[in-house]
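Handout, page 2. Input:
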Amino acid sequence: MVKIENIREYMRSQAEADRSRKWIQVEGEDLDDALRQAAIELGVSVKKLEYEIRDPGKKGSFGIGKRKCVIIAYPLVPESKSDLDVEDIDFNITGVDDRPIDKDGDIIVRLTPSGALLTVLPPVGKGKRATEKLALSRLKARFVSDIDSQLVSRTVKNAEGIPVKVGEFIYNPASDSLLSVEIANFEMKAFLTARPPGKGGIDLEYDTVINFLKNNNVIHGIDEETLRDLEMSPEYGKAVLIAEGTKPINGKDAYIIYNFDISRSEIKLKERDGRVDFKEQNLIKNVVEGQALARKIPLEEGKSGRTVTGKLLPATDGKDIVFETGKNVKLSDDGKTAMAEINGQVMILAGKLTVEPIYVVPGDVNLKTGGNVTFLGTVVVKGSVSDGFKVKAAGNIEVLGNVGKAELDAEGDIIVHQGISGKNGGFVRAGKGVWAKFLENAIVEAGEIVVASDGIINCKVEANKKIICQGKRATIVGGELRAAEEISAKSLGSVAGSDTILEVGYDPKSKKRLVELNEKIEVFTKELDEIELNINTIQNIIKVKKKISDEKKEYMNQLLEKKIVIEKERESISEEIEEVESYLSSLSVKGHISSSFKVFSGVKIHIKDAFLEIKNEFGAVTFINESGVVRITKYEDSGEDYSKNR
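Output:
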C-alpha cells in the first residue's frame, strides 16, 4: 500500500530532478528549426530532446504578421524504475490536498565580527514554533556570552526571519571556517567546500567568500544567489557548485526565408464542401510585380565565452551566403529582399530565384500533370485540356491539342491548334481573340475577334469585333453568333435548315445587358401587379367594414413599403435601359454578314434593328442594313488572311 509519505518523497525527488535538469529557451523559423538550434546548444541529438512549445509561431502573409516559434527544451532523461512507480500511486488518497507541507520553525545562530546574530524562522502550516529555550541552547553551544535574554525572547516571539544581534563572543581567528575550491571541467566549473568553524570562529560571510574565490582565480560566473544561501544556511563539508563558466555561442549562418513553398514534392489540395478537389493541386507559385519573394537573414556574430578563471573562449561567426537572383527578379537597396519585376511563376532555377512569364504544361491538363492551371502570365499546353478542367491566365493561353468540356479564361488571346469540343458545357473567354480549328457545342466570348478555320457548330459566340470562319470547310451551322462588325464564313446554315442566328451592328455585351435589364423589369412589374392587387383588396375591406385588424394594418404597411422600394428599383433599371439603348443606337458600326459560297434556309439575320429570315438558298452574298432593312448585295471579300495570326 502506498502511503502519503511515499508520495511526498516521490514528489520531492521529482522536483529535485527537475531543478537539476538543464533547459534552454530557443526560437526558430518553425518547430523543426527551433529543435535543431536546441540540439546544437545542448550538445545532444534532436531525438534526445524533450520540449514545451511557448509560442507556435506564425507564417504571416508576405512577411507581415510573422512570428518565430519559441520552445523550452530539455535533454531527455533516461527511463529508470524508481522504488515508487508512479503508476502504482492512487492520487485520490483521502486527506491529500494542495495545502503546504507542515514545517516547524527553526533557529539559526551566526557568529560575525559584529557579534552573535540570531535568526528565528517562522513555522509553515501546522508546524510548531521555535522556542526561546532552543534559541538559548544554540547560542550557548556556540559559546556566546553577554546574551540579551529579553531581546532573545522578543526575537523568538516575532519570528520574522531577520538576523538580530543578541550577544557577544570571544573571537578566535584561528577557528574560522576553512575554505577550499576545486576548479573542474576544463575550468568551466568551480566547487566550494567549507569546514565548520571551531570555538570562537566566525561563520561564512559573503565578502569573505568572494575575496577567497578571487584570490584563487575564480572571477567569472559566480552564483551570487547560492553564495547568499550559504551565508544564511551553511552546508559544511559538502562541495557546492559556486561558479560556472560561460560557453561560447557560435553565430548562426545567414539563411533565406522564402515567401512561398519551395518544395514541389508536397501537393496541397483544396477542399470544396468538405470534399477534396483533386483538380486544384496548386503547383504554380503565382506572384505579382513588386511582390516580396524572399528575404535574406544576415549571419550572426558569435558570442565569446569565459572560464571561471576569466580565460576567453572565442566563438565562430556564422557563415555568409550569396543571395543570387535570376531573370525578372531584383534585390532591394539593402540587398536583403528579392522582389518580382513581372507577374508570373516564381521558381528556383540553378539556385537562383527566377520569375517566369510563361508556364508550360508538358502534356495534357489532367490530374497527372497537376490539375487546373491558374497563372499570372502565359500558359502553353503541349497536349490537350481534358473534360472538367480549367486553365486561367493573365496573359495568353496556347493549346497544341484539343479542348474538351473545359473552361479557358485569358486576358489576352486563346489559341487552340486543334478544336474546341465543348459538349454543351465548355466555356472559353478571351480578353482579345480566340483562334481554333473548329468550335463545337461551346460558349465562346472574345473581347475582339473569334477565328475558326474549319467551322463553328451549335455554339454561342460573342465577339466585340468580328467572327470569322476562313478555310476550305469554313461553315457556321446552328447556334447564336453575335459580333459588332462582321460575321463571315464560307457557308451559313445547313441543308437541314437548323436555326442559325447571326447578329451584327451592336456591342454584344451591351445587348446582353439590355436583355437582362428587360427581364428584371418584367419581374418587378409582376411583383407590383401582385402588390397592387393585395392593397386594393385590403382597401375594399376597409370601405365595407370601416375597420380592419392590427395584423392587416401591419401587412398593409409592409405592402406599401415594399411597393416604394420596387418602384425605385424599377425606375433605376428603366434609366439604365434608356442609357444602353441610347448607346446602342449611337454606335457608328454598320455591320455586315457575308458568305463566300452559300446561305441555307433557316438562317436568321439581325443587322442592328433590321431582321431577315432566309427562306431560299443564296450563293455568295453579303447582308447589310440599308434604311432599316436587311439588303442582299454582292459578296464582299475583306481580303484579309486571318489564319496567319495562328
